[in-house]
Amino acid sequence: MATTLTRPINPVDVSADALYVEDRWREPFAALRAAAPLSWRADSPFGAYWSAVTHDLVQEVELRHDVFSSRWDLGNITIAEAVNGEGFPNFIAQDQPIHTAQRRVIAPAFAPSQIARLEQQVRARTTALFDALPRGETFDWVESVSLPLTLGMLCILFDMPYDEWRDLKRWSDWASGVSADNLNDEYRAEFMVHMGEMLARFDRELEARRALDPTDDLLSRMVHSEAMGNMEPIERIANIALLIVGGNDTTRNSMSALVEAFNTYSDQLERLRADPALIPNAAQEIIRWQSPVTHMRRTALQDTELGGQTIRKGEKVVMWYISANRDEAVFPDAERFDVGRDNARRHLGFGHGIHRCVGARLAEVQLQAVIGEMVGRPIRVVPQGAPTRLASPFLHGFTAMPVKIEPA
């Protein structure tokens, strides 16, 4: 078994924002997959970390949840040691049995019967939004399409007024802001101000639900449950932030990636027009191709072996989904966006095992609706310059994307 002195060293700090802002992440991860599928980086703004970069290793870490912990008090689920300096005890930053009990509260809101009901609203809202988009003039796809669709759906899930979606976006951005630039006291202080505003708004909603009989809406389920009905303020902040971030970031960044994918591989748009039955698979493929969650992190509960290396108790293991989803051993010609890829569903964009995203099916429905509108209309969404990419090693996304709708 390898010792600390013989650990394969990662020569590139793949937590650096610049790799993602400048879209330069492919080469370092490809080099690691070929030469060091599990490597050690002793120096980064976030401290030392292991990188698991192949599909099989990421799956193994996810499935060995008895050894590789998600617990917030051991470091949480991102490469950062906490969420902007604060412990964040939400349900995916817990191990069993707490994780299981709290997930069971949330899961019924995304049951097949609920998704069927929501799907009708998703399709109606998506059609109405596309009807209203400007033609022949430049606009921001992120601001005009990705954000209102995904955050509008959160307003439905929370039974909140639609015009509050911009507040949800602000809170989501602050809650998910993993970046070396944020590791300072000034940023942390402002972070807590925004989280306090979010808590005050949601506490009003939670107390209103508490006074009513239980219903199927997400907040009612929380407040009327034994597992989540009497949480401390920081627990409420953490779980609300999780629902907001998880409920919009994966979907909105995949929606934006559709523009890049269809313009880079225009034959795939025509393929979908010839065979719309491929649209559900295309939704899986865009999640794989974009990998909107760049990584998740686990902490070793004991000394263990992984990939032929010795992982010591307390060391962090970062699962780079963005690399695992480009693993040629699983996805041949992995860089290509292929709407007919026969194993697109094997992507790890939603995680794997007990922590797989509880709202994955709703995200798929939303993506299918957007793809359906892009395919079913005689239009092309044409980039009007380079997009602005998110400065983060945690979420792989866009902050702006200038486009123009032209006739197909």
Structure, explained:
The chain is an alpha+beta fold. The protein has one domain (4-153, 252-407): Cytochrome p450. Helices cover 46% and strands 11% of the residues. The chain has 14 helices and 12 strands. It has helices at residues 17-21, 26-35, 55-63, 98-106, 112-132, 141-158, 165-175, 185-210, 218-223, 233-264, 266-274, 279-290, 321-324, 360-376; strands spanning 38-41, 49-52, 68-69, 139-140, 295-300, 304-306, 309-311, 316-320, 379-383, 388-389, 398-400, 402-407. The protein has a 5-stranded mixed β-sheet. Helix 5 (112-132) runs parallel beside helix 14. The longest helix is centred in the middle third of the chain and has 32 residues, at 233-264. The chain is globular and about 60 Å long. The chain starts with 16 loop residues before the first helix and ends with a strand. 46% of the residues are buried. The mean pLDDT is 95.
Oligomer: single chain
Amount of beta strand: 5-15%
CATH superfamily: Cytochrome P450
The percent of residues in helical segments reads 40-55%
The third-level CATH topology is Cytochrome p450
Question: What is the CATH C level class, in words?
Answer: Mainly Alpha
Question: Biggest β-sheet, characterized?
Answer: 5 strands, mixed
> What is the CA-CA span between the terminal residues?
58 Å
Number of domains: 1
User: How are helices and strands ordered from N to C?
Assistant: HHEEHEHHEHHHHHHHEEEEHHEEEE
